[in-house]
Write the structure tokens for this entry.
Amino acid sequence: MADWKRLARNLALANGGIDRRESDIIRAEIVAGGRIDRSEAEFLIDLRKSAKHADASFHRLVLDVVKQAVLSDGSISPDETKWLRAFLFADGTLDALETDLLRELQESAVATCPEFDELVHRHVSI
């Protein structure tokens, strides 16, 4: 049986990037499963890294999926903070959408760890 992630990646990147239509299809499939976990977020992060260009809707999708994966149990742990930090700073900078993600995570979490609190304190103006 074919690896569905590899197939999806090859199809999405056939023209070098991810357009709005492809982003909508990917969103529908990811959301259709109900619960979103870290492996789906990592798949989308890898897809975003591999694309020469991607529609803004795809960037938003990646951030939405990361948010759902991190908040799957309502709290943000040190391990999740470490993973989140690696994702956010993979390119060496924190853009406005990523700053908004940190703010949204802080507002939505029922509990956070000191590591996450420090990350937010350092990079988000509240």
Summary: Strands lie at 17-18, 53-54, 75-76, 111-112.
